[in-house]
Design a protein that fits this description.
- By secondary structure, the protein is an all-alpha fold.
- The chain has five helices and no strands.
- Helices cover 77% and strands 0% of the residues.
- It is flat and about 40 Å long.
């Protein structure tokens, strides 16, 4: 997740705003995230001791999807507040919603 966050910050506020505000770019971003899920889910499954090819165990997919959704929520918040709140703070808040 840190790599994703760093790449978003390095893109710059204007580039991130464009992705958040342009439906076709946002759709492309979500498509890219599906690719990330394909890469990340087997890694998370291995760490959980679950087989990545076991659809009866949705935990790895749920964790990856939730992390990416939190990243998107943090990114959208960062754009809306015009970067006045650090993206890392927003990501912590988004992920913290799961433990509140």
């Amino acid at each position: 997740m840190t790599v994703v966050l760093r790449s978003r910050i390095s893109t710059g506020k204007q580039g991130i705003s464009r992705v958040v505000d342009t439906p076709s770019l946002r759709a492309g971003h979500f498509e890219k995230q599906l690719g990330w899920q394909e890469v990340l889910v087997p890694q998370i499954a291995r760490r959980l001791g679950a087989g990545p090819d076991r659809p009866e165990d949705p935990r790895p997919t749920a964790l990856v999807a939730a992390a990416l959704a939190c990243s998107d929520a943090a990114t959208t918040g960062w754009v809306v507040c015009e970067g006045t709140v650090p993206m890392t703070v927003l990501l912590d808040r988004a992920m913290g919603a799961f433990i509140e």
